[in-house]
Amino acid sequence: MFNWLCPDLYLNSIFEIKPEFLRQKGIRGVIVDLDNTLVPWNEARVNKDISEWFQGFKDLGIKLCIVSNNKKHRVLTFGEKIGIPTIYKAKKPRKKSFLKGMQILKTKPSNTAVIGDQIFTDILGGNRLGLYTILVIPISKKEFLWTRLMRSIEKAVLNFLIKKGHLTPPER
Ligand SMILES: [Mg+2]
Prior knowledge:
- The protein is α/β, with parallel strands linked by helices.
- It has a single domain, classed as Rossmann fold (3-Layer(aba) Sandwich), CATH 3.40.50.
- The chain has seven helices and six strands, in the order H-E-H-E-H-E-H-E-H-E-H-E-H.
- The protein has a six-stranded parallel β-sheet, sandwiched between helices.
- The chain is globular and about 40 Å long.
- The two termini are 28 Å apart.
- The model has no long low-confidence stretch (mean pLDDT 94).
């Protein structure tokens, strides 16, 4: 169980994820979460840093797809602004949306990465299919009540994984 909850990498933010690094790992496609991973929860604006981050991947031929549990309008609008495909109401950690994401990216588990801020949706879903999983610290504290409740369990799991030496915490 704990194996499925342990990300391959744990970082402060998406900006610590370098396209060159993933490219060297053989990654050709990235499934990325939206809320609190790319932007604060329900934030609609796309800033320059985010655009440049996306561009860095495109330049290296790594495709991206946003996979979010959030609503259609929210996810589609953001995806259109940034110009990358999206899957909304993804019901992560269910496998279906990850499989659909890889279909869009034309990749397979061995060359696909998942980036997200939640262990029980992004990381669990990715690990179940054998994807390369990257956990980032959530951007803001604002989120669904349910997510906030899950955070305390998440924290305990992370502490356990770090204590057991399975996971290296992000540098502060
Ligand atoms: Mg999220």
